[in-house]
């Protein structure tokens, strides 16, 4: 009987350890969207924000009905391609302005745009799985 108790205890600890490791795994794609919306929905209910609850419930229903991981992945790829194109285009505009000896104010403006485009691209790349 004592041996059975030790085995049961070890089994329970192993199951608990594996489930906590699974719970710590980050969610991705549609599961992450569902989790995020569900968390916001729970908080809105706790605070009594009826309008927000209605909107979040609608959003959750839409995610449950229409979200597909492959579509999300394709959308992310498209956004990444667009961000890379924006960086390239802005770099070209800046280079042309510098070569044409445009006024410093215009060059500074283009440098600001380039920095923003690069930070947007970096943010999108950081989100990529």
Q: Describe it for me?
A:
The chain is mostly helical. The protein is built from 5 helices and no strands. It has helices spanning 2-24, 29-47, 50-66, 69-99, 104-127. The longest helix is centred in the middle third of the chain and has 31 residues, at 69-99. The chain is elongated. Residues 1-23 have low confidence and may be disordered.
Topology:
Elements: H1 2-24, H2 29-47, H3 50-66, H4 69-99, H5 104-127
Describe this structure in a few short sentences:
With about 130 residues, this protein is an all-alpha fold. Helices cover about 90% and strands about 0% of the residues.
Distance between the termini: 49 Å
> How does the major sheet shape up?
none
List low-confidence stretches: 1-23
Our estimate of the beta-strand percent is under 5%
Q: Which geometry do the CA atoms define?
A: elongated
Task: Count every beta strand, where a strand is a DSSP E run of 2 or more residues.
Answer: 0
Number of helices: 5
Which class best fits the helix and strand makeup? mainly alpha
Whole-angstrom Rg: 25 Å
The amount of helix comes to: over 70%
Mean pLDDT: 82
Order of helices and strands: HHHHH
